[in-house]
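Lab notebook: predicted structure, single chain.

Context: the supervisor wants predicted structures on file for every construct in the current expression panel, including those that have not yet been purified. This is the next one on the list. No modifications to the sequence; it matches the entry in the shared construct table.
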Amino acid sequence: MRSYSPDLTPPWKKQQPAPEVPAESDLVVEEVATGLCGAVIRTEKTAEGPTVTLEDRFGKHRVFPLVPRGFLLEGRVVTLVRPSATAPARPARTASGSVAVPGARARVARAGRIYVEGRHDAELVERVWGDDLRIEGVVVEYLEGIDDLPSIVKEFAPGPDARLGVLVDHLVPGSKESRIASQVSSDHALIVGHPYIDVWEAVKPSSVGIRAWPSVPRGQDWKTGVCRALGWPENTGAAWQRILSGVRSYRDLEPELLGRVEELIDFVTAPGV
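Prediction complete. Output recorded below exactly as produced.
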């Protein structure tokens, strides 16, 4: 007669089963063992078992086995499975994560605007939120700095039917940017910002293929210092294109930027505007 040995492992130490997620085309996941992040290209049934092919940000394809708890989806451990032939199609998403509206026409531009500091900020917002902004009729313009922000806001003359949202880099207590922003007072203008010295830092290092954004000594041009520290050619335009090419969706951006841009879009598109 076989003896019975009870499992005395406390419930909170037992590994919980991971949810099963169909590996549908364009789903962006991270492979646990290697940390590679990529979009699903296809799944296949092989002699060694089912596999999934991911495409990374450089367009390279890697094949991984579909093993339990093998992937991360939006930070959660999941088990990818081959999608059922009869599975309902997932709604298409824009780069910002919103449900895409097939065939939607761009709305006539609103009187309201979103201002950002520079061209790189504008290109990043367009990359992730461009589809949403066109549907909402929101135009994004860049200022080439915010030293004259109070007079710019005054000249814009924001009102109930023409709200103004402004995204500021390095908006932290005690900074020059915070002092300038505090001079703007209007119920119809919203000034928000992220804590990063430059919008480059709002892109996750892993999406750029680096471990972390380097620390640049005070007194140096920050972008040039970043290029030097990373061993990149000291061409900030080329460096930015390299960074921007790593941005596929909102998942490649830090939450501190995501929340602020969403806040501005909500502000300028509020009902009645």
